[in-house]
Amino acid sequence: MAPDGQTIAPNVYDAEPIPEAARAEIDRLLSSGDLFRYTAPQDAPVALLEAEFAALLGTRYALAVSSCSAALFLALKALDLPRGAKVLIPAFTFAAVPSSVVHADCEPVLVEVGENYRVNMEDFAAKLPGAGAVMISHMRGHTSDMDAIMALCDAAGIPVIEDAAHSLGTVWGGRNIGTIGKVGCFSFQSYKMVNAGEGGIMITDDPEIAARAIIMSGAYETNWKKHPGLSNSCAHWQNKLPLYNLRMQNLSAAVIRPQLPLVAERVEKGRANHDHVAARLNASAHLSVPDPLGPEVRAPDSIQFNLSGDWTDAQALGFQAASKARGVAVQVFGLSEGNARAFWNWQFLGDQPELPQTRAMLMRACDVRLPTRLTGPELDYIADAIVEAAAEARV
Question: Is 240 a catalytic residue?
């Protein structure tokens, strides 16, 4: 709040705060120097996190690793796909997703995404034959039609990995996102619902996938014995798989664990914040927030919306500038130089087929962070700034 009582532009860049409960455990770990997850015979912070996260999501196994990108990579390697296997991914995702496919010696196949940010099911069905796996990114927490995706993949015997980096707390048809496919992968990077700076975790009900991922994550010699319930499977794979050393360390787990009981509250607050701002933006003739699909109950910590109508690139850039002048940074995905979410910037993939539907969406799709800590007046300030900037750009 400014000295004159006016609400100033809110800071949306600070991550979720670290609970005070984490500090004592961090101090204890620093004093002991016991930061490696496999030093303690049992109940290391990382091991406790895995048990707690599995219980939170209702799954059998969880493996904490260095990032969600590491989890995606390990999930692909754990599927034991042949070199060069085709992996379908949405064309609207973060560059780390196709990168994980490349790292796993597989070939990404980009699928069109519509103006509602969800996978185009016609293009998906056309590209599915011959695929070795599917990696569905619930990008920015927007869930594609998982019923249709799973029906097609199950019929073809093709495993599905869920990139749920943005979707902790989202529910689809009463099921937690991340538990619908064969493997679910989540992020603890600072701009996610749970903030550890970096970190990730993968979940599965499949003991063979869990065992292979544990070994490859860096459970060398007999450290796999500290993962309960997997002794037979891990023993079989010991020394037969490469070690990539993608482990999480205890300090990260100490930061994450006290935040897990706060997830439900953050989800509720994030959804209320999103829906409040969405209603304001949808009242503008120049803006539209796509509705979720029917079975989806989202857990958003940001908002995405489209510039509605016949906007030119110059007008869209003018809107970005006008919003920024009001203290609210809006990113138009396709007009932000070098944006890692624009598929044409993934030059490491080489030449790719044109994806006109996804390109058109990205050129007018906008992104604004809405941390769950924002207050009502701060949300209104953001909504006012966006609506006013859009009106100014269209004069």
Answer: no
Residue 121: is its pLDDT beyond 70?
yes
pLDDT number for residue 6: 54
Point out the catalytic residue in the list 77, 86, 182, 192. Answer: 192
Contact 217, 246 (CB under 8 A): yes
Domains of the chain by residue range: 21-261, 263-393
Q: Could you read off the pLDDT of 42-86 as tens digits, one per residue?
A: 899 999 999 999 999 999 999 999 999 999 999 999 999 999 999
Q: Model pTM greater than 0.90?
A: yes
Topology classification of domain 21-261: Aspartate Aminotransferase; domain 2 (3.40.640)
Mean pLDDT of the chain: 95
CATH class of 263-393: alpha beta
C-beta of residue 76 within 8 angstroms of C-beta of residue 133: yes
Residue 114 has pLDDT above 90, yes or no: yes
**Distance separating alpha carbons of residues 199 and 253, to the nearest angstrom:** 9
